[in-house]
Specification:
Length: 360
């Protein structure tokens, strides 16, 4: 039984995705309008400029000599310290896998809203799964993201397919296979990036086992429909990712922007690339060398935009803490050790600065 109070609480926390947008056309409904002062300086979805975020070619990495590898590590370290973001190409993920998941994502979001809403967004254990979105509780307002999203992880793929296409086994199979294939490929890439990032930090463990991400990873398919007035709304509210690091595929329509000084820098979309960004756990583990930077998605008037975020999880440690290898007299430890449940509690209480509680 769901009590009245629980229901109220739920509708507070989870937005109804784009219900109002779908039923009213051609105007931005109030719930999606953001006051100018909250939006701050805006950068259009195609104002790329010289972003400075490096595009790192991982092709042939195994054949590189130590000096050439060092150069790549240094670029990764510099990018993580300055922007919290870098991009990779020739990353080893088959481009057909990318095309296939983009098609599967589009097909999912094309399904009628009533069907998608059967996958109600809720916390299961310590993770959010299903269709919808967290509201921007940071600002304690009713304002919504101009987007819809599906959180899924490997153990729940089949549940999504059978809920959305109960009578259509071909569609079930196609969706499940595309997502499973993607998760498999991204798991490999996640492990590879973990080693690259550790090397860039100058951490060369005998065995990397203890540093490897916890499974399963969490994934979010995002859909940003065209918006009649992109300057008055936001596709995905400015946020920090909580996890270890995120591997984002943004297709060929731009929209991802990263906070830099007082403004925003757009991350140029390359259909064959991934954007990689440090989350709060990498910031802690790296003792603040890697920055978990505020980022958001903006929308545009003409094109649907689909992005896929693969959230690599922090290693499965009792306590998250800076790596001892990165701490010495000149680099004092910045965070006290904490557990993941402690972090989640802190994030609920203070979503915009969840690490504050653990700073030393
Ligand atoms: C995210 C995210 C940006 C985008 O899903 O956490 O930052 O461009 N997405 O969709
Ligand atoms: Ni994010």
């Amino acid at each position: 039984m769901t009590t009245e109070r629980e229901r109220d609480h739920k509708s507070e926390v989870f937005s109804k995705a784009l219900r109002d947008v779908i039923v009213t056309d051609n105007a931005v409904p109030d719930a999606y309008l953001w006051p100018k002062q909250e939006l701050g300086p805006m950068l259009g979805h195609e104002e790329f400029g010289e972003d400075g975020i490096p595009l790192i070619d991982l092709g042939g990495f195994e054949e590189l000599d130590n000096n050439q590898r060092r150069q790549i590590y240094d670029r990764i370290r510099g990018a993580c310290a300055t922007y919290g973001f870098f991009q990779v190409v020739n990353h080893g993920v088959d481009l057909r896998i990318l095309d296939r998941i983009q098609a599967a994502s589009k097909k999912f979001f094309d399904v009628p809203l009533e069907t998608k809403e059967k996958l109600e967004c809720k916390l299961e254990g310590d993770r959010l799964l299903g269709y919808g979105f967290y509201k921007s509780s940071k600002l304690k307002t009713q304002r919504r993201n101009w987007s819809e999203g599906l959180f899924v992880d490997k153990p729940h793929i089949a549940r999504v397919s059978s809920t959305v296409w109960p009578e259509d086994t071909d569609s079930q199979t196609e969706f499940s296979e595309s997502v499973e294939e993607y998760v498999g490929a991204l798991r490999e890439l996640g492990l590879r990036l973990t080693r690259l990032i550790l090397n860039s930090l100058g951490v060369y463990p005998e065995t990397y086992d203890k540093y490897m991400p916890k499974e399963p990873a969490l994934m979010r398919l995002n859909h940003y429909p065209p918006c009649p007035d992109p300057s008055k709304t936001v596709g995905l509210v400015p946020h920090h990712d909580a996890n270890f690091f995120t591997i984002l595929h943004q297709g060929d329509v731009g929209g991802l922007q990263v906070k830099k000084d007082e403004g925003w820098v757009a991350v140029r979309p390359y259909p064959n690339a991934f954007a990689v960004n440090a989350g709060n756990m990498l910031q802690v583990i790296s003792n603040d060398i890697c920055k978990s930077v505020l980022h958001k998605a903006v929308v545009n008037q003409d094109s649907d935009r689909y992005s896929i975020a693969y959230f690599v999880q922090a290693p499965d440690w009792d306590h998250i803490a800076p790596l001892p290898e990165l701490v010495d007299a000149a680099h004092p430890v910045k965070y006290r050790p904490f557990t993941w449940p402690e972090y989640l509690e802190s994030q609920l209480a203070n979503p915009s600065n969840a690490l504050k509680n653990f700073e030393l």
